[in-house]
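Tutorial, part two.
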Amino acid sequence: TRTARCVIDSTPAIEKAGPSFCTGGFAYVEPSFATALPGGPEDAIHGVALLLPIAEAARLDAQERSYSRAQVTISTYDGRELVGFLYTSKTVSGTVVDTPCSARYLNILVMDSEYITRLATRPVYSPTEDVLLMRRALPEPASLQAFTVEELWATRGDQDFALTCLLGYVLCVPHNVFFMKTHEGRDLTARQARQWNEISMDYDDDGGAMPLRQPVAEFPDAQLEYVCNWLDHYLGRGVEAVGYLVPFLEQNPSVKDRL
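Running the prediction step on this input gives:
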């Protein structure tokens, strides 16, 4: 498998565990991620139980060092009861607070009809009125300093900040606010739109080139909202819009009307 290179035995099995959306993510866009927690008799996660050599289990522990082990009961499809462990989030302690995840993230967890029934009715993140007001308070693009793609790209590196761009708005982001270096010095609109569609963000990535291959006017509402969530993510962390990307505005002159 992808995680274990040396497997003594394996079998389809069900863990007495359940998903919990209590692992923190990115504010205003991916508020939570799922983790598996030991559960009760009605909880079940289907998968493959692996029997590993001690050395391989230790290697796997090192690989999954951001998680901790939790003991669970495992029922195999052929009726055996086993005791094993799962990896669960280290950040979960005390009272577990379930937080709505994004609609994009929930979509990728739907695996079968039973899972659809259990998961499709879960609430998903939606911005509060305060967040929407923050978004709508953005200045008119024409009132901001004009930037080019090349000027954005030139801010990549070791200085204290870099420029990034979402939906044409150029944001001056301190390096300690960036979680991913792939966000530095470029427009992110097309990249995050691909993420909503579950298309690899790295495959055929154009680095934020203009014009967009798909104008924003052609974005479905849900896809556009997801890109807006990323804009909220930075605005909500105190980042200011310092300019506007000229070629973006030329291609998408009315995008502010859809924010």
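The two ends are 43 Å apart (CA to CA). In part three we will examine how such features are distributed along the chain.
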